[in-house]
């Protein structure tokens, strides 16, 4: 079902984790659809993404696209990061099964959401970045075990 | 490939070598068409009827009440659509549950688009139909109650006899999808008031592509597949002789070993359940603790997603399932887990392990260790778990 | 049992040992459910798609256009019923012929009872559809033309390309029941303007209980069997993996050997026809002399009745057929023979011999001798023959 | 499908043939249904059936019932022959498949038709014998070969 690259990024995901006091954090997706991605960015004063971490609740493709997305943004400037699309993530993974394409969209949105957070925190406007619409729009009730 | 641990017997089972042996002569030697008049082919008719007899006996039914189909799905479609058609003059209302297999659910939805009314009964948190709700749902226009014998995801066994009594009291036909239950638990169609029952060979170590519909004598129901005069003119198409013979052999063995097998499976299943619940935190068992199929365990692991779990188990040569096999790949969480009240995020993190008598304690031990490792790993990457630990 | 002579390959064929060998691993080793996510099962998905590809190639079709079914009958039912349903808004008229297999005829009759109008076209004395009648039968409400590729009783091959052109010109869907023709004669669905095509594995040395429906891309047609998401959501039910693999193997071999096989069969068939017509008086060949399946010979022997003839052939270890296999036992003479204009008493005295490449000249010689003996014996007991000789 | 007795009478039918100047001849059934039976009776002055022959166009069961019927009537008086029913023929053959029961009816009717012919020829009335209704009611058109 998945390409070798996807399987590689799924079994050995790069940049899993959190960043304390990150420059920007974005969380997209929702539990109802079964995918939640959170991306942490550490951006220096020159606007270069020095570090990136992610956490993902989701299928193999969701994990792999998150992992690949972090690799793609690392070392990039904010402007360059903005140009990373779901297509570039997919291509970098040698493709995804049709039913999993939405996962790559989520990765794109996660980057945008983290950048948006960074912009808001620093009170700057990033050209071409819109407020991401996807987010955990409903907290699911928790149940007792 | 390294030795695999197969824990997905609800999806399909290994065809027994004895079953294959029984089938083999019917491919290359006794290959005749049972409808032909010559001796060479009439032996195949006999073989088909022998298998039919074995199955009838397993149900407490008459040999003339068993009709072979191309699988469990066809049997479900047949029972529901053809009853709907035959009893149209009486009414257009069908009662089923929210936890049926898609073979029943999508057939009911199809009928809804064609002028029928369908009530989808709720189940309780263990997946059991509420009998009082069933009674209340019955209308003068109700022509069919179709409720599965045992659920394919959470293994819950329904109070079939009680449902049969309600159906009989109200003079409504009762069909049960017993694809997961047949030859696994005791079934007697007469004692249980079952008018129609579906089953599929590949769930009980028989071949794929062969099933049957039991139709009680006197139940008028149309054909689903029209054509030749096979199956007492009720199901057309050249008989799948090797398939039928294999089905018969599989049932013969499954019935003979049922008691011992169930005992062994229950022991192993309970050991598995006990360990997982004790050793993996934030985990629940789905389905009823007692009224469940001998081989079924279904867990929800909070904060993680099922597919990731499955793939990692697969990388460790463990074959398991989240929702039902034929809907994996879909993005919706299991309708069964939602029906028993699980929130979406938890339904997404479910794992079904369905054993066979061939599984060993060692396999279970290995599986539990792997589950622990993987769940731990996935939680460490889960934003939901992060939020949860932060909140604490 | 003594060595038999099998001359009923239109009823069913021997499954080739190579086909069985191809199937075997999918019973006991690679037994997984193709819908499962783990590697162990996904190899089965690949195997299914390989077979699908082989079949698509044999039709000149795309791999996404082949949908497996539980047999030829199901494919016929599916094509006709689901088209009728999907195009209800456009019209309710279906055109077919009087010589279709019951899988088509009884399905059409079923639709007639449900508000559809069906035209049953006549055929000429050789069993060929009259194209001008077809053109004339088309109405604004016509939604489907379903005409068999080759007839199962008399072997007549229809002018499929011409029918396809008429269908296309009138923007009507064209389905053909190619159960007897697939992998026996050249078929290209695109060249021939075929929108849907049914076939069945057991007619070409594949296993019983597996068939397919070709559905051209863009043809909107509903499901017949609802349930899981198998076969691109169009045909539910756990895939019959061994059956599919066997079908693929059978098609692979049948396509590779088609030309040689046909040549051999035609030679033997023509030898048989020549001898029987020359040596048994008051005998006719049914069907077209040239536009006929390579392996089909169908005779009518005046003054005698077919079942008696069959039983006596059987006593001599010759397997043959009068009408189609699935209707023997019925008292009606073949609808096909009546449609080509035979009177009842002569239709009753028909014999179908359908060869395979394994038959030998010796077998044919023996069979002809036995036919002569038996026909003679039966005529001597026939009151019709007595009347005939008295009249002379 | 058939019992051994049926197969025996089918493969070695007794009393096949014609009787020249028979006391009575009866033909029943029709080609449309696929069964025609003709029975010849040779009845002596005392009303005893001395000889019997048959010809049958029909299936295995039709041939076997005809053959058995001839065995049953041979040597019987007309009155005794009249008591032979389709049930007695079937029983003597150890039964017939359900779809073939009509053949045994034909055998009964063939006896009756032959007796009727005998009665007519001799201008006598046989108590309990009615004019048989079954007969070749339509000559099929013949076709060219
Ligand atoms: C409860 C239930 N019903 C119906 C089916 C369908 O059976 P099959 O896939 O053999 O058509 C299945 C299994 O897939 C099942 O588990
Ligand atoms: C022309 C034709 N159509 C349909 C069928 C039905 O195929 P199956 O018996 O495999 O369902 C047959 C054979 O029985 C056939 O000869």
From TrEMBL, chains A, D:
Q: Which InterPro entries match?
A: NIF_FeS_clus_asmbl_NifU-like (IPR017787), NIF_FeS_clus_asmbl_NifU_N (IPR002871)
A Pfam family it matches: NifU_N
Superkingdom of this entry's organism? Bacteria
User: Where does the record place the NIF system FeS cluster assembly NifU N-terminal domain?
Assistant: 1-123
Give GO terms for biological process. iron-sulfur cluster assembly
Q: Which GO terms describe its molecular function?
A: iron ion binding; iron-sulfur cluster binding
Xref: NCBIfam families: NifU_clost
Q: Give the protein name, as stated in the record.
A: Fe-S cluster assembly scaffold protein NifU
Organism, as annotated: Mobilitalea sibirica
Gene symbol here is nifU
From TrEMBL, chains B, C:
Q: So where's the catalytic machinery, residue-wise?
A: 326
Can you say what this protein is called?
Cysteine desulfurase IscS
List GO BP terms, alphabetically: [2Fe-2S] cluster assembly; amino acid metabolic process
**Listed SUPFAM superfamilies:** PLP-dependent transferases (SSF53383)
What the entry lists under InterPro entries is as follows: Aminotrans_V_dom, Aminotrans_V_PyrdxlP_BS, Cys_deSase_IscS, Cys_deSase_NifS_bac/arc, Cysteine_dSase, PyrdxlP-dep_Trfase, PyrdxlP-dep_Trfase_major, PyrdxlP-dep_Trfase_small
Record field: catalytic activity: (sulfur carrier)-H + L-cysteine = (sulfur carrier)-SH + L-alanine
* Known EC number: 2.8.1.7
Coiled coil regions, renumbered to chain? none
Please provide, alphabetically and separated by semicolons, the GO molecular function terms listed in this UniProt record: 2 iron, 2 sulfur cluster binding; cysteine desulfurase activity; metal ion binding; pyridoxal phosphate binding
Alphabetized, the UniProt keywords read: 2Fe-2S, Cytoplasm, Iron, Iron-sulfur, Metal-binding, Pyridoxal phosphate, Transferase
Please name the gene that encodes this protein. Answer: nifS
Q: What is its main location?
A: cytoplasm
Give the residues the record marks as binding [2Fe-2S] cluster.
Answer: 326
Q: Which residues carry this modification: N6-(pyridoxal phosphate)lysine?
A: 203
GO cellular component term of the entry, any: L-cysteine desulfurase complex
Which parts of the sequence bind pyridoxal 5'-phosphate? Answer: 72-73, 152, 180, 200-202, 238
Role according to the record: Master enzyme that delivers sulfur to a number of partners involved in Fe-S cluster assembly, tRNA modification or cofactor biosynthesis. Catalyzes the removal of elemental sulfur atoms from cysteine to produce alanine. Functions as a sulfur delivery protein for Fe-S cluster synthesis onto IscU, an Fe-S scaffold assembly protein, as well as other S acceptor proteins.
The places in or outside the cell where this protein is found are: Cytoplasm
Q: What family, per the record? A: Belongs to the class-V pyridoxal-phosphate-dependent aminotransferase family. NifS/IscS subfamily.
Copy the pathway line from the protein's UniProt record.
Cofactor biosynthesis; iron-sulfur cluster biosynthesis
Q: How does it assemble?
A: Homodimer. Forms a heterotetramer with IscU, interacts with other sulfur acceptors.
Positions of the Aminotransferase class V domain = 5-366
Cofactor(s) listed in the protein's UniProt record: pyridoxal 5'-phosphate
